[in-house]
Amino acid sequence: MRSLLAGLLLFVLFCPSPSAAEETPIQLALFEPVQIYDRDTSVRGIRLSLIYGYNHELRGLDLGLVNRTSGLTKGLQHGLVGVADSDFIGWQNNAINLTEESFLGLQSGAFNSAGDMEGLQWGLVNVTEHMAGLQVGFLNVTNTLEGLQIGLLNIARGKERFPVLPLVNWSF
Asked: Residue 2: what pLDDT?
């Protein structure tokens, strides 16, 4: 009886659960699909994308040439192009940053784009649907603004008065 219980305990402790089987602490990708784990796997740790890496979610450090996630990204993403098809929380630091849905944190790069942005966008061109925070760049564009834009040309389409201003635009 004891060996049966011990065997059952070992099975429960060391058998991968469905959620654990879909998550890995490390991912290495040459280009998708030539990567250690497939695109439906989530990474909780470090992903290194030599050319193009694509996974479901990422929580941790994301380094590479082109980095893409289909689900939530939390952490630091650094490379040439960063694409989050869903939400992003943290720091997206690529030459080109694209977040389809909500963003909370800092986007820094030549081109930054987000759906609902809360935080700081710092780059040459910054674009959002809704901006709550600060945009600093040569061109800043948003549909609705709750914060400050600093740049050569600042556009807040939803403002009734002065939606386009040089140097500084605001709405509180």
From this structure: 59
Q: Given this model, what pLDDT does residue 1 score? A: 54
Q: Is the same domain home to 70 and 109?
A: no
Q: What pLDDT is recorded for position 6?
A: 46
**In the chain, how many domains are there?**
2
Residue 5 lies in a domain: no
Exposed (0-12), middle (13-18) or buried (19+): which is 158, by Cβ within 10 Å? Answer: exposed
Residue with tokens 């945009």: 135
| DSSP class per residue in the chain | -HHHHHHHHHHHHHSPPHHHHTEEEEEEEEETTEESS-TT-EEEEEEEEEEEEEES-EEEEEEEEEEEESS-EEEEEEEEEEEESS-EEEEEEEEEEEESS-EEEEEEEEEEEEEEEEEEEEEEEEEEEEEEEEEESSEEEEEEEEEEEEEEEEEETT-SS--EEEEEEEE-
Report yes or no on 92 lying in a domain: yes
Task: Look up the domain containing 163 and give its range.
Answer: 105-172
7 phi/psi in degrees, rounded to 5: -65, -45
In a domain, 89, yes or no: yes
Do 137 and 85 belong together in one domain? no
For residues 26 and 73, membership in a common domain is answered with yes
Low-confidence residues of the chain: pLDDT under 70 = 1-21
